[in-house]
Amino acid sequence: xxxxxxxxxxxxxxxxxxxxxxxxxxxxxxxxxxxxxxxxxxxxxxxxxxxxxxxxxxxxxxxxx
Length: 65
Prior knowledge:
With 65 residues, the chain is mainly α.
């Protein structure tokens, strides 16, 4: 006897895996575009690593509730 997910649980897991894969592909494409535009490999890394630190501080100042 084995216990596993079925039905909605499997669909949710598959959906989250697909979203994570799409997010990684999107970040990779943005990184490659930034490398081409900036002509450097390090500058896009610094910019992309700094973005998550900016988001919490910008949320309270947004005009939307």
